[in-house]
Design a protein that fits this description.
The protein has six helices and no strands. It is an all-alpha fold. It has one domain. Helix 2 crosses helix 5. The longest helix has 28 residues. The chain is globular.
Length: 125
């Protein structure tokens, strides 16, 4: 793969990731939605877009620009459920999402604990 193809991959990643971030910022600035509702909406949107077959082409086109934002977490949940249902049947619908995302969830817990121990919290003023 030449350097030109690699640069195009980076541009695609930036375009989709940047668009997702810009949409989130617009939702924060222009609506009364709380950040928690926007974040939850992004995860649910990732699940729905994967379920209807729209998100996989975005992942193929933009790579990490599609898998790193919160919509990517929803995509990972949906992919995990899809795989587990194919292997285990209906029980996979309950276990597949957590199995597919357990590494990221565990990392978030561990890093949160490390930061809580290392850094002292300050009161908001």
């Amino acid at each position: 793969m030449g350097w030109c193809c690699v640069m195009i991959d980076y541009v695609n990643c930036f375009l989709l990731g940047g668009a997702l971030c810009a949409i989130g910022q617009l939702l924060i600035d222009k609506t009364n939605l709380t950040p928690a509702r926007i974040l939850t909406g992004y995860v649910v949107a990732g699940v729905i877009l994967q379920a209807v077959g729209v998100y996989q082409p975005l992942v193929d086109w933009a790579g990490c620009g599609a898998t790193v934002p919160l919509t990517g977490f929803g995509y990972s949940l949906a992919k995990g459920v899809e795989k587990a249902v194919a292997e285990q049947g209906l029980l996979g619908a309950l276990t597949g999402g957590l199995t597919a995302t357990s590494g990221g969830i565990a990392a978030a817990v561990v890093f949160g604990l490390v930061f809580a121990v290392v850094f002292k919290a300050k009161e908001k003023r």
